[in-house]
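> @MW can you paste both from yesterday?
MW: sure, first one:
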Amino acid sequence: METPSIQDIEQRLLERMEQGTLPIEAVEEDLAALAEAGKPEEADSLSALVEDALAERGRGDDLLRLLLRRADRLADDRAFRAHCETVLQAAFRKDVVGRKHLGHAGFETGRPLKECLHRLMFLRRLAPGMFFLEKTWGFGVVREVDHYYERVTVDFSRKKGHEMAFAYALESLHPVSEDHFCVRWHKDPESLTALVRDRPDEIVKLALRSFGAMSVPRLQELLCEGIVKPDEWKRFWDAARKALKNDPLVRIPARRSDAVELLAKAPGFDAEWFSALAAERLPERVLERLETLEAAVAPDALGDAERATIARRLTYVLSASERDLGWTARGLLQVYQWGVADDVSAGSERLRRFFDPGTLAAAGRELAPRRFRRFLELLFRSDAEAAMSAVAGTLPLANMTLYNELMEFAERAGQGERCWKVIREHWAARRPTVEMLYSLARRPAAITEQGVGTPADLPFLVLDCLEGSFSGDRLRAANQLAELCVQRDWLQAVLPLLTPLQREEMLRRVRQKAGRLALDAQTLTGRMVALCPELSRLLEDASGADDAAAVRFTSWRTYREKQRQLERLVNEEIPQNSRDIAHARSYGDLSENFEYKAAKDMQRILMRRQEELEEALKTVRGTDFERDHTETAGMGTTVTVEGADGQSEVYVILGVWDQDPERHIVSCESEVGRRLTGRRQGDEVILPGEAGERKCRVRRVEGLSDEIRAWARGQNNMA
C-alpha cells in the first residue's frame, strides 16, 4: 500500500483540528507511517503541531501518548524537553489533579525526560484494581487512589490497606499485567494448582515470563510460598525439568546457582540473527541478545563480520546508555567477552570511570550479583591496583548485598586487608556503616581476628547506629541488625565480652533510648536480664535513668584508654599477681617471706585500682562532643584568649580525662577549663599560669577542628 504523502497527512490533520476531533489512534497511525517512510523530521513537525492543539484543548492524556512516542528519539534534546514541559502545563492548566500529577513527574528535579513522562503516565493511569509488585511487600492490588492527599492505598499480600504517598509509589510500585503469575494466582488459584499437578513445566515458564530469569533456589523459594508444597518440591522440579529439557525456549544451566532462562524464540545464531542484532535500536535488547549469544557460542567461533557487527552495536549501546551505569557495565562486559575493545570507541575510558567508588557503587546496585562479580574481575584484570582501591572505597557506600560481594571478591583476590583497613578506620571513628556492623555482629570473632577494635564496643556501636534513621536498602540492613541483636544466641555470644559495668551501661542505654532505637527494647531488656540476672537490680529503679547531674563525659579516646587499663588490670595484672602470691607461698614461712608480703601489698593496690577504674567508668561516658551552639565556652569548644600584653593563647576544652598540652587540650574539670566554662566572646577572665594568675579577654569561642575531633575519636593517625 502506498504511503500517503506528507501533504495528504498534513491536510488530513489540519481538517481534523478544524473539526475538533483529532482521534488519537488515527493521528498516531499517520505519524508512524511518515516515520517508517523515512521522514522522521516531517513526522516530528506535524506531531508538534498536533501536540499544541491537544494542549490547547486540555487533552493531556492524548498529548502524553504523542510525547512518549517522540521521546524515544529526542530524549536528550533540550528544546524538546522544554516543549514537553510547556505543552503539558498548558494541557493541565484547568485540571487540578493533572497539575498535581505533573508536579510529581520530576521535570523540576532534572530527571531524564523519558522517566518524567513515564512517571506522569503512571499517575494518570493509577486506579483501583490495578496490580503491582513492590520489593518489600510483594504483590498488591490498588484499593483506593486519593488525588487530593496524593496517596494510594494498596492491599499487599503481606500487608493489607498499606498507604503510600505518590512520591514513594512512583519509586517502588511496578505494574504487572493480567497474565502475570501473581495476578493469575490472585484471580484463579485453582487453575494454577491444576497446572502444578498436570503441567509443572508450564508453571515454571509462567514464573520465568513474569519474574525473569532466576536460579533454581530462587524459583523454589518463589513457588513454595504457596503454590507448591515444600515437601513436594523435588517431585515437582524433577517432572518440570524433564519436560523443559525438550523445550528449545528454555535454557537450564549446568550449575544450580546460575539462572534458568526463557528465550523469546529458539536460538539460531545465523546471518539472520546477526542482521536482527545490527538493526536493534534498544540498548537493553542489544545486551540481552549478546548475553544469549554468550551462553551458547564461544568467542573464537565468530568470524570477522560477526565480530564487527558486535563492535558496532556495543559502541551504540555505550553511547546511548551513558547515564545508565548498569547498562554501561553490562556493555563493557560484552566488549571484553568478545574481544572487541580495540574496535569500540572510548571503551577503555568508560571502563576507567568505574574506578571511582561512587560510580562503582551505583553500578553494583543495578547489576545482578553474578554480573557484578564478573565486572569486578574485569576491572581487576584491567588495573588490579586501581580496582582494589575502588573496591575498598566503595565499601562504605555499599548496601548489604554489594558489601558482601566486595568483601568476598577482595578475599578471593588476596586483598582482604585493604577492606579491613577501611572497616578499622570507620570503627575507630565510631562511624561504621550499618552493613559493616551487621557483618561484624554476625561474626564477632572477626573484630579481634582482624584487629578491628575492642569487641566490647560492638553492642554500643550497634545501639548508636540503630538510633539513626534509614531508608531503602539501608533500612532493610538496619532491620536485619535490629533483629539479630535481640536474639538470645547473639546475646549469649556478646554479653560475655563485656565487663559487669559495661553490661550495666548497655542496659541503661537500651532503657533510656527505648523510644529512639529501631529495635524491640523490651525484648532486648528481658533477654539481657534473663542471661545476666545481676542486671535485674537496675530494673528496680522506676525511673530507669541515671541522675543526669552525676554523669560526666570524656572523649572516646580517653574513655577507651580507661577501658583498656581496666581490661589489662583484670585480665593480665591481677592474674599475674595471683600467680606471684602462689609462687611466693611455695617458699614457706609466710611471716619471714618478703616476696609473699610484697605480692600481697601489690594485690591490695591492684584491687583498689580496679575499684577506682570501675567507679570512674560508671560515672563517666564517652562522647563525640557534638554541640548545638558555641556561643559560650565549655566542653567541646575551642577558646582563644588574649592577655593584657597582647599575647593570644588557645585552649581546647574537652572531657574530664582529656589533656594534651601539644594540642592545647585541657580538661573541662581543670582549673582553666572551669574558669572558661560559660564565658562568651568579650568576657574577661582570670586564668592561672606559670608566672601566676593573669587577666585575659575571650576573643573567640569556636567549635572543634577536624584534627581535634579525630584525636578525640582516637583515630590511628592521631595516636
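MW: second:
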Amino acid sequence: MKKKAFKAESKRILDLMINSIYTHNEIFLRELISNASDASDKLYYNALKNGNTGLDRNSLAINIKLNEDDRTITISDSGCGMDMNDLENNLGTIARSGSLNFKQESEKRDDIEIIGQFGVGFYSAFMVSKNVKVISKAYGSDKAYCWESQGADGYTISECEKESNGTEIILYLKDSTEDENYDEYLNEYKIRSIVKKYSDYIRYPIKMDVKKSIPKEGKEGEYETYIENETLNSMVPIWRKSSSQLTDEDYNNFYKDKFYDFEDPLKIIHSSVEGAATYNMLLFIPSKAPYNYYTKEYEKGLQLYSNGVLIMDKCADLLPDYFSFVKGLVDSQDLSLNISREMLQHDRQLKIISGNLEKKIKSELISMQKDDRENYEKFFKNFGLQIKYGLYSNFGMHKETLQDLVMFHSSSENKLVSLEEYVSRMKEEQKYIYYVSGESIAKIEQLPQIELLKDKGYEVLYLTDDVDEFAIRILMQYKEKEFKSISEGDLGLETEEEKKEIAKKSEDNKELFGILKDSLGDKVKEVRLSTRLKSHPVCLSVDGEISIEMEKVLNQMPNDQNIKAQKVLEINANHPIFNRLVSMMDTDKEKLSSYAQILYSQALLIEGLSIEDPVAFSNAVCELMI
C-alpha cells in the first residue's frame, strides 16, 4: 500500500488549513458533524429523486463515540458514503468540496441546505489529531475503503470491511501539552457542550453513549452507573417553527436558557423573511439592562446561524450600537461565509439583513410605545440612555430613525412623553418646543425660569441625563418645531407692548446695568432686565451654544479645557429688588457692587453651581444685615 501525496501543491497549504484558518480547536467537531449532515442530506435527496420514499430522516443519526483507553473520537453517519474515487478526489484534494459540487449539480439546488462549501472543514480534524482514519462505504456499493493520514506527509487508501453504507471518522488525539489540553475532548461533558453550542440544530439526531447513575435500591448514598445512548441536540430550532405553534413559555424558556437571564424578556420579535435576503430571526428585548451594559466590557451582537449551524456567537454587524441591547439570533442560508465559517465576508446580504433588522426593531418599539406603554416605559428606563446616545453620535446621522423613540419627563403630564405627543398638544400660538436641563426633576421644578411658562400653560420637557441637551441640540427641530431652552434667547412669550416697556426700562437704567456688569467683570457677558421671570428676583440665562448644564458636563470630562457658558444675569423688572437697585443709584451707589455679587451668587446657587468665593458672599450678606 503506497502512500500518496496530497494533490494540493505543498505541505505549506495543509499546514495553513490546520494551524491558521480556525481560531478554536473545538471547531473540528462542528466541521465533522456538518460533513456527516451533508452526507445524510445527499442520501435523502437522491433517495427521493430515485423514488425511494421509504427513507426516514430520523433513522439517519450521527453517532459520536469516545474511547479513553485508545484516546480516540469516532464520528459516524449512515449517509451516502464514499467510494475510492470520492476519497481520492474529496479527501486527497484540499479545497475541493463534494458537497458544493453536489448542490451545483442538483436540479433543485435551491431546496438543498448543504452546509459545506469550501472542502477544508475535514482537515480541521488535524488540529487535535495525530492520525485520522476514514472508513467509508458508498450507498449501493459492496466495497468499503479506508483513507488514512498523519497530516501533510500524505495519505493511503486501502480496501476494508464495513457492513453498511456511510462514513466513520476515527481521530487519534494528539498528546496533551502545557499549552494544549487534548484530553478534554474525551470528556462527555465537553463534547456535549460543543455539540450544544455549534450543532444543536443539525436536523439529524447526534447520539452518544453517556454514563448515568441511579441510587442503589436499599443502599442509601450508593449509586450504580449505566450507559444510555442519548441524543445531544435539539434538531428543530424554535425559530423555524411557526409562532402559532409556540407559547410565551416556550419563548421565555428558550431566552433564559440561551442568553443566561433570570427574567422573562420584555419583548419577543419572531419572523421569517423571504426576498432579497431569506432568513429567520428571533429577537428579544431584555427586561433589565445587563450589569455591564454601559461599560466597555459589554459586547453587542446577535448569534448567527447558517442552516442551523452556529457561525458566530456575537455578530456585531447585525445591530447598530443604539440597538445593542437586543439579544437573539439570525439564521440564513444566503450568507457568504469565509473559508473557516467562523466569520462573515462583508457582503450585500449581510447589509440587507442588518437594515431589515433595524427597521423591524424600530417598528416593534414604536408599537410598544403606543400599545403597551407600561412596558415601553420599563424599556426606556433601562435602555433609553442608549437611544439618546444614538441620537447624538455620528453628528446626528441616525436622528430620523431614533427621534420618535426618545421620551422626556413632561411638566404638565408629570410622566415620560414622546416628542410626537408633545407636538400634538402644543398651543396654537406656541412657537417652540420648550425644554430645561437640570440634575433632577425636583431641582428643575424650583428653577425661576419655569414659573412663567407653567403659568401660561406651556408644556416643558425636563432633561435630566447628561446627554439629553446634546441630543436635543443635534435634533434642532421636530416636525418643523424648533427646540428652545427656557434659559436662552427670546422665548416668544411677550406681546409687542411688553417688549416696548422692557426696552424703555432698559434704556432708562442703562447706567445701572453698566455698574452691575462692571462689578461682576467677566463672570457675566451682560446684566439686563428679564422677560422670563415672574416672582423671582434674578436668574441666569445664556448667550451662545453652550448652556450652563452643558458647561457642567463638559468640564467633568477628563481634559484640560475650561469651558464657560456666556452667562447673562437677568433681573426681574417687577420685583422689589429692581426698585431697590434703581433707588440706590441716587442714595447709595457704593453698595451696588455688593448687591451685584449677592444677586449673582444667588443665581449660581439656583442653577446648582458653586459660588466662587463663599467667604466674600457671606461677608457681603452680613454687610447688608448690619
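> thanks! The radius of gyration is 36 Å.
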